[in-house]
Design goal:
Glutaredoxin, globular, single chain, 4 helices, five-stranded mixed beta sheet
Length: 121
C-alpha cells in the first residue's frame, strides 16, 4: 500500500489503536464522514499502533471501519508513525489531492468542514 495511490483524492491518514479510548470514541464520526463523502473523493487510510492482530481486527469490525487499514503490529515502533512523528493518538493528517499535509488532528465538525472545503477545490 502506497500513499501515491491516493493522489487525486483528499485523504485522511488516521493513526489509532484498538486500545485507545479517544480513538474509538471518534471512530463513529469518521465512519459517518466517510459514508457521506467517499463517493465525492474522500479516501481514508487507517494506521493502527496495535500489537495484537486479533484485537486490531475485532476493533475494525466492531467500529465498522470499511476503508483501508494497515498495521505493522509494532505499537509505537511503527515505521509509518515514526515517519509522521506521531507521539500521541488519535492523530490525523489531512492530505490534499496533491498529497500535501494541509491540516492535522481535526475532529468532529472541524474535520468534516475541512474535508468538504478540500473536496470543493
Amino acid at each position: 500500500m502506497s500513499l501515491k495511490e491516493s493522489l487525486g483524492k483528499v485523504t485522511i491518514v488516521d493513526f489509532w489503536a484498538s486500545w485507545c479510548g479517544p480513538c474509538r470514541k471518534e471512530n463513529p464520526n469518521v465512519v459517518a464522514i466517510y459514508a457521506e463523502l467517499h463517493a465525492k473523493g474522500l479516501n481514508i487510510i487507517g494506521v493502527s499502533l496495535d500489537e495484537d492482530p486479533i484485537k486490531w481486527k475485532e476493533a475494525i469490525a466492531k467500529d465498522k471501519l470499511t476503508w483501508t487499514q494497515v498495521s505493522n503490529l509494532k505499537g509505537w515502533e511503527d515505521p509509518i508513525a515514526k515517519q509522521y512523528k506521531v507521539e500521541s493518538i488519535p492523530a490525523t493528517f489531512i492530505l490534499d489531492k496533491s498529497g500535501n499535509v494541509v491540516a492535522q488532528d481535526l475532529r468532529g465538525d472541524e474535520l468534516k468542514a475541512k474535508i468538504i472545503e478540500l473536496l470543493g477545490k
